[in-house]
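Q: For a teaching session next week I want to show students how multiple molecules come together into a single three-dimensional assembly. I've collected the sequence lines for a complex. Could you give me the predicted structure tokens for the whole thing so I can convert them for display?
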Amino acid sequence: MNVINFGPGVYDLPTPDPVRLTQWLGNKIESKSIKLIDISKLDGGALHENWICRYLFEDGLFEGRQEFVLRMAPLHKLPQSLTLNQEYKLLRFLNKTDIIVPKVFFLAPQSTISDDEVLVMQALKGTSSPLELMKNAHTVENENAMTRLLGQHSARIHNIEPKADILNFLTIPKVSPVHQNLLLFEKILDSLSSPLPLLEWAVRWLNKNEPTENEIRLSHGDLRVGNIMFNNTSLTGILDWEFASWSDPLEDIGWLCARCWRYGNDNKRVGGIGELNDFISGYDEISNRTINWSNLPYWEILATVKWALIAHQQGQRNLSDRKKRLELLLTEQKADEIEHDILTQIKKFNGSAYAK
Amino acid sequence: MQNRQTIMNLLKTIRDVLDQDVFPNLPAHQLGTVKMTQSGLDIVIRNLTKSSETITDPKIQGMTFNAALSFLKNNKNSEYKFSVRELAKDIREGKYDDNLLGPILGELEEQVCQRLELSNPEYLSKQRFTQPNVI
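A: Of course. Below is the structure for the complete assembly, covering every listed component.
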């Protein structure tokens, strides 16, 4: 058995204990023989640590070679994050729908695999690496197909309406989705060590320019390239549901399309992969109602403000791992770029037909 | 306490040694980390250079960079802190609501451009984000 850690030094985020993991899985699965082949940390994720482990089972439900992803509870979750237990319930619900997400197997209680809870789920085929996805989308046909799929799968999420008997742990907002965000933004601004006048100003602008119509649907909350897995051009899963909520569908789409999440491929509006028309065409095929797409630029601005605030939050997290800490401090430095982009977008918005 | 210029020379020399003697000999899988540390050092050097040029307050001349920054940010009487904090407070209280796209926009733009000159001056000419994001 190999335990593979990445990079110099050890992350101070929770890590699974391979011995306790194997014992716990062996008991849970009731296999006569279970052998851990290897375990390694997956790239990405500043909040959650995700690990992949490969096992060989002699018999039972998982007979043969199996791969699992272990999602560890973060040490410092953001106020807007779901708990791992809530994420588990959400994934169990989604596993019964047509939304493609990893199949969730177990939620290991505290003090079993790790000090905190651990989600044990299916390892999906493919990649969520933005650069690899952009490489896959290198032909017009691939790009159109992938973007259309993104539209279809986004619509599937947004077809889920809040009902009394489902996902009760997701609070139905008492105010509009925009105001729900703005209240959170002010809370984040108050928690940061330095005042940020430009972001205060952007929050006021968002407040004054709120679209008149809104709908409440299931929202992924972090729908972007990096959290969407493709195997070549087939979408194999939508990952990382920790920010899920009831919100306006355009919140997700604005986040997906915001320039800060196009990974430098600025002319491809949908996550740096493809064109908005292809996304809309896929979305409208599946969606059970009509979206007012003219509100998208507003939601892209809201997404950019949100990302700027998160960038500032990242810089204030205190991790002892020096490499991770440097990454987060540099993320905070990027906030200047994002804030400049907010000004550019708002000036463009006000000079356009979208402005009131 | 050494003066700021000495500290800056030391930092630039460290940067040169890392660039020319250490980084080229590192294995490929550490290139990402190298780029991060280079970006970090560049930001610190730009900040030091800029603050040496512009800070004329006799109270902070001769201080190390961190001490000067700490003084500016934490001193209750500091004009710097007062203006930024007051501006943020006034905006929150809606004092600019009637004319959000008026002169306040120019003021905020100037502030963010000044910060970009230190964090990423290239953004001002190319408008391209530093990649990748970490979230």
